[in-house]
From TrEMBL:
Keyword Nucleotide-binding appears in the UniProt entry: yes
The FeoB-type G domain, residue ranges: 1-160
Taxonomic path: Bacteria, Bacillati, Bacillota, Clostridia, Halanaerobiales
Protein name per its UniProtKB record: Small GTP-binding protein
PANTHER family noted in UniProt: FE(2+) TRANSPORTER FEOB (PTHR43185:SF1), FERROUS IRON TRANSPORT PROTEIN B (PTHR43185)
InterPro entries: Fe2_transport_prot_B_C, FeoB_GTPase, G_FEOB_dom, Gate_dom, GTP-bd, P-loop_NTPase, Small_GTP-bd
Keywords for this protein: GTP-binding, Membrane, Nucleotide-binding, Transmembrane, Transmembrane helix
Pfam family membership, one: FeoB_C
Ranges that cross the membrane: 203-223, 278-304, 324-346, 358-382, 388-407, 448-475, 518-538, 550-571, 577-595
């Protein structure tokens, strides 16, 4: 038997799913958190049943891929739990009435019941049941209220016969229902309501956005550095090092097995960054260098997600982007990408057209370094000066803007306006934020450790077989002439396909100059996504579009890497290079308009 959780986006389906199954799935305060269905098991009356968390949809006429997934699945359901946001009854009922026309047993969960009471909304449940002809249960998924009553109805199998209505008939019926069952007694504006308005208006929204982003960045660095300095590095030095040194001696300090497990000793000592053995660098990078930043980033992200601030940031940036001729694609996939590019590549499913998906995925893949890579960039460049970190991120931001410009102008078609629902601001539930952090941390470890160890193994084999030397001879001249990098950096670029943090780690022994480190960090981000992201992108974009995206990546790498190499002199960008940059932006801004005007004239 299976039970489907269906409803509009952002109504708490995933939160309910977590409650019912005990499985943890991500829930956030914006539409489109779930883009693929998730199935979980639950014990019920000595039986094990399937609970399915369906992506949110506004209607049964899907407008994007996430919604299509939802609609295709209905006929398989034994019971649908239609989850409603009770604070938004009118909009939610549209889907409810459509679902009632399907011949599947259904019950209604009136979620957000806690907020209903807060906001002075009164809903007459008995009347609503009467109108809909199905059981209606008030619930609060985050607090866990009403869940038991819901479960008691799992054997509900009555199917109400409804004639299908036209859209107009449906809306007029909804109007009637809402008027009958709901009374609103609104008691003025709270400070959250006021903040909601301020965060969207450009004049106040922009300073708020800058403040939020800078503060987030500061906190992430503070937590990340704190964990590294006071927890992970001391642990590796004090506890792990003696064990490894003991093992090293046991293995005779050299030989094949020793080099594979421990790696090369530097002045008779293990160097966790440079030894490159499975048990040294292979464990040190993910646990000691990257994990602290993963924790820091996902803590802040999870918090921001649940406040409902991210969609506001999207709308704000969309407005700004429009001014420079860019069209709106959600900024949310980009922000998710700073954690890991894989979920970001999935999140573009909520965008409407293939064109928008292509632009958003490509931009994300070329200009957003994931947290694993960022942690290593911060480690590598932060030791010189913070300003070099900003050079890398600044360069990538410019790449994002210029590539966005170009793709938007060069690809046929136009992007539709960003239609994003803005949820209310809420104070996040700490339990849920911590739980989400935990899920993401585990999934980082599950993904990172195997790839990392495989990577270290392959690096050792490639060194042994001389593969890197061969590649250095073939591609070395390009690295040297275009990017000003030593030949040996090719090994890092090759391994970057497996994991970017591994690749960054391989740069450490090369003793690069600051300038070379900046260039390497930039091109390691741009040139290609890691294999995990690559696989998702092929699936999401299709093979042909992925080929196109790859072409964009390779061209951008050459152009940007070359530009930085030429423009970065004596510890910073030269004034001339700023002029060139401004020139390029102006050129792109105005050139395509001429083309468009000609088209208009010729029609
Ligand atoms: N106050 C309150 N918050 C809730 C309740 N249910 C869910 N939330 C919060 O509402 C937000 C949305 O919940 P999700 O479970 O992600 O919603 P969803 O329906 O799965 O959304 P999509 O996957 O985007 O379709 C999260 O921040 C939840 O913590 C509730 O009953 N009361
Ligand atoms: Mg969900």
């Amino acid at each position: 038997m299976n039970v489907f959780l269906m409803g509009n986006p952002n109504v708490g389906k995933s939160a309910l799913f977590s409650r019912l199954t005990g499985t943890n799935v991500t829930s956030s305060n914006y539409a489109g958190t779930t883009v693929e269905y998730t199935a979980g098991k639950m014990e019920w009356q000595d039986d094990v049943i399937d609970i399915i968390d369906v992506p949110g949809t506004y209607s049964l006429d899907p407008t994007n891929q996430a919604e299509e997934v939802a609609v295709e699945m209905i006929s398989d359901a034994d019971l649908i739990i239609n989850v409603l946001d009770a604070t938004n009854l009118e909009r939610n009922l549209n889907l409810t009435l459509q679902l009632l026309e399907q011949d599947v047993p259904m019950i209604v969960a009136l979620n957000f019941w806690d907020e209903v009471q807060h906001r002075g909304i009164e809903i007459d449940i008995d009347k609503l049941e009467e109108y809909l002809g199905v059981p209606v249960i008030p619930t609060s998924a985050t607090k866990g209220n009403g869940i038991r009553n819901l479960i008691e109805l799992f054997d509900y199998r009555k199917v109400t016969q409804y004639d299908s209505r036209t859209t107009e008939e449906r809306w007029s019926e909804i109007g009637k229902i809402v008027e009958e069952v709901q009374a609103i007694d609104y008691d003025g504006h709270s400070w959250l309501d006021r903040l909601e308005d301020l965060s969207i208006k450009p004049l106040t929204g922009l300073p708020i956005a800058i403040f939020v982003l800078l503060l987030s960045f500061k906190i992430i660095r503070f937590i990340g550095e704190g964990l590294i300095g006071y927890v992970t590095e001391p642990f590796f030095e004090v506890v792990y090092r003696p064990v490894i040194m003991w093992l090293s001696e046991l293995l005779g300090s050299q030989g094949f097995i020793h080099d594979l497990l421990i790696g090369q000793l530097v002045e008779g000592q293990v160097d966790f960054e440079q030894s490159f053995g499975l048990l040294t660098t292979g464990i040190f990078i993910p646990f000691a260098a990257v994990l602290p930043y993963i924790i820091a980033f996902y803590f802040i992200l999870g918090f921001l997600e649940d406040t409902g601030y991210l969609p506001r940031l999207s709308v704000l940036s969309d407005n700004l982007m429009h001014k420079v001729g860019l069209h709106g694609f959600s900024i949310i996939p980009m922000i998710l990408g700073f954690g890991c590019n894989v979920p970001a590549a999935l999140a573009v499913r909520t965008l409407e057209s293939r064109r928008e998906k292509f632009i958003a995925s490509t931009l994300m893949a070329i200009s957003v370094p994931c947290m694993s890579q960022t942690a290593m960039i911060v480690g590598l460049l932060g030791s010189y000066s913070n300003k070099y970190i900003w050079y890398v991120f600044g360069t990538l931001a410019v790449v994002w803007i210029i590539a966005g410009f170009l793709l938007n102008k060069l690809l046929p078609g136009f992007s539709s306006d960003l239609l994003l629902e803005i949820p209310p601001l809420r104070i996040p539930n700490p339990g849920i934020v911590v739980k989400k952090l935990w899920i993401r941390m585990l999934s980082f470890l599950r993904e990172a450790i195997p790839f990392m160890l495989a990577g270290v193994l392959i690096v050792n084999i490639f060194y042994f077989l001389g593969v890197f030397d061969l590649m250095a001879v073939i591609l070395g001249p390009v690295l040297d002439k275009v990017f000003g990098l030593p030949q040996e950096a090719i090994s890092a670029l090759l391994m970057g396909f497996l994991r970017k943090d591994l690749a960054m780690g391989m740069l450490v022994p090369l003793d690069l100059t600051v300038k070379q480190s900046v260039i390497a960090s930039v091109i390691l981000t741009i040139y290609f996504p890691c294999v995990a992201t690559f696989m998702v992108l092929i699936r999401e974009l299709g093979f042909v579009d992925m080929l196109k995206a790859t072409a964009v990546m390779l061209i951008s790498t050459l152009v940007v890497g070359g530009f930085v190499n030429f423009a970065f002199q004596g510890g910073g960008f030269t004034p001339q290079s700023w002029l060139v940059l401004v020139g390029i932006v102006l050129l792109i801004r105005f050139l395509p308009n001429i083309v468009e005007n000609e088209e208009v004239n010729s029609v």
